[in-house]
Design goal:
By secondary structure, the chain is an alpha/beta fold. The chain is built from 10 helices and 7 strands. The chain folds into 2 domains: 125 residues, Rossmann fold (3-Layer(aba) Sandwich); 93 residues, P-loop containing nucleotide triphosphate hydrolases (Rossmann fold). It starts with a strand and ends with a helix. The protein binds cytidine-5'-monophosphate (C5P).
């Protein structure tokens, strides 16, 4: 029958990726990180397109043929020139420019095509911004994760620094997150049939359990 598709959307650092990864693992299906495709095309633009201020979609997309994906046991893994560049895709220069690239309609269409081709091939849990609204409007389950910006900043820093961040560090990170949210705003509305989960005070394990239970109920 039709492959299973679960959409997990939400703002930056709402825990989408790790939640989606964990849900996918529990359900025995693949995780797709749609943001990784935006990051991959941005990563290539940084080395081929010159000053980011003057990037245009045609030049950015000239690198698209260098990006592909393959199935691993647990995920749909984006590749650049056939190599997994996951760590480089999380670097600050990529993170700083990715929203600019994600605003280009032609880039969005290209990412959507990549992600849809993966979802047509296998059962997937996809995380992103517009998965339940645009990429897979017919997904069997749509979840929208929200969390307080301070809490999102704190969690991201704990992940990055592997220690307890100071209030000053959290304040700075919060500012950056809020700025990225504003740039991403157009893509970040929940689908009408999405289930919103506020994760500010919920442990990741509880979120995952809740989504897995919802997924099992749809099957
Ligand atoms: O999820 P992640 O933070 O890796 O996404 C990086 C960027 O890619 C986001 O800030 C956003 O600009 C863009 N994005 C998007 N739509 C998606 C996934 C990511 O616009 N479905």
């Amino acid at each position: 029958g039709t492959p299973l598709t679960i959409a997990i959307d939400g703002p930056a650092a709402s825990g989408k990726s790790s939640t989606a990864q964990w849900v996918a693992q529990k359900l025995g299906v693949r995780h797709v990180d749609s943001g990784a495709f935006y990051r991959a095309i941005t990563y290539l633009a940084l080395s081929t397109c010159g000053d980011p201020e003057s990037w245009v979609a045609d030049d950015v997309l000239a690198n698209a043929p260098r990006i592909s994906w393959r199935l691993t046991e647990r995920s749909v893994l984006p590749l650049i020139d056939d190599i997994d560049q996951d760590t480089a895709l999380r670097d600050a220069p990529v993170t700083r420019q990715v929203s600019r690239v994600a605003q280009m309609l032609a880039v969005r269409e290209w990412v959507n095509q990549m992600v849809r081709s993966a979802g047509a091939a296998v059962d997937v849990v996809v995380d992103g911004r517009d998965i339940g609204t645009t990429v897979f409007p017919d997904a069997q389950l749509k979840v929208f994760l929200v969390a307080d910006s301070w809490e999102r900043a704190r969690r991201r820093l704990v992940q990055r620094l592997r220690r307890r961040p100071t209030d000053a560090e959290i304040a700075e990170e919060t500012e950056e997150l809020v700025a990225r949210d504003a740039k991403d705003a157009t893509q970040s509305a929940p689908a009408r049939d999405a289930i919103t989960i506020d994760t500010t005070t919920v442990t990741q394990e509880e979120q995952v359990e809740r989504i897995v239970a919802l997924a099992r109920a749809t099957r």
